[in-house]
């Protein structure tokens, strides 16, 4: 296989599927036909430089889009917090129960 070029919109959508939809990197690579390992690099590049991660991004995120993204992230963080609270409650009821002692 030769080197395949992906446009910036395609890259952003693939990264969004991983970061916002919570899909696995390998799953997205398979479903979109991306060479193994390429998407991981895109995700890392996006995390390091979100606004200018991919060449061709001209306009910044609109306030409405940013609000939607932040609300979605807030919901995810609240779910994670709730899970951690439950885990703490479970492990603090009987600390020796899960330690094998």
Automatic annotation (TrEMBL):
Which residue ranges traverse the bilayer?
none
Q: Which SUPFAM superfamilies match?
A: Homeodomain-like
Protein name according to UniProt: Transposase
What broad taxonomic lineage does this protein's source fall under?
Bacteria, Pseudomonadati, Thermodesulfobacteriota, Desulfuromonadia, Geobacterales
């Amino acid at each position: 296989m030769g080197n395949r070029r992906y446009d910036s919109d395609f890259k952003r959508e693939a990264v969004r599927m991983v970061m916002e939809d919570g899909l696995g990197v390998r799953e997205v690579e398979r479903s979109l036909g991306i060479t193994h390992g390429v998407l991981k690099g895109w995700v890392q590049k996006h995390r390091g430089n979100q606004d200018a991660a991919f060449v061709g991004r001209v306009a910044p995120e609109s306030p409405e889009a940013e609000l939607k993204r932040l609300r979605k992230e807030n919901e995810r963080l609240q779910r994670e917090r709730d899970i951690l609270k439950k885990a703490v409650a479970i492990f603090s009821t009987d600390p020796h129960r899960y330690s094998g002692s």
